């Protein structure tokens, strides 16, 4: 999705240097867990934290099927 948005905006930028700066700026953005956690309600964060990895592995197996 991000790739298509960048391609669309770059169509309207005539300078190659500016297009490169736009691409580098957008693709260098990284979202950390701390940034996501501050938007989650505390009870949801605690609920997720209390669950084991096996719980999420089983859910993924049910959704996508199979797995190791």
What shape does the CA trace take?
A: elongated
Multimer state:
single chain
How many domains is the backbone divided into? 2
Poorly predicted spans: none
Name the structural class.
mainly alpha
**Main sheet summary:** none
Number of helices, counting only DSSP H or I runs of 4 residues or more:
5
Could you tell me the radius of gyration in angstroms?
19 Å
Helical percentage: 55-70%
Order of helices and strands: HHHHH
What is the number of E strands?
0
Mean pLDDT: 84
**How far is the N terminus from the C terminus?**
30 Å
Question: Strand fraction band?
Answer: under 5%
Would you write up a description of this structure?
- This protein has helices at residues 2-10, 16-27, 33-37, 42-50, 53-64.
- It is elongated, with a radius of gyration of 19 Å.
- The protein is mostly helical.
- The longest helix has 12 residues, at 16-27.
- It contains 5 helices and no strands.
- The model has no long low-confidence stretch (mean pLDDT 84).
Question: Could you give a quick summary of the protein structure above?
Answer:
This protein is mainly α and 68 residues long. The chain contains five helices and no strands. The chain has two domains: 1-30, no CATH class; 32-68, no CATH class.
């Amino acid at each position: 999705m991000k790739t298509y948005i960048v391609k669309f905006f770059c169509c309207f930028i005539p300078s190659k240097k500016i297009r490169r700066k736009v691409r580098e700026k957008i693709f260098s953005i990284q979202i950390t867990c701390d940034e996501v956690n501050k938007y989650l309600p505390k009870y949801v964060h605690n609920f997720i934290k209390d669950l084991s990895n096996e719980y999420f592995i089983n859910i993924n197996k049910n959704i996508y099927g199979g797995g190791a």
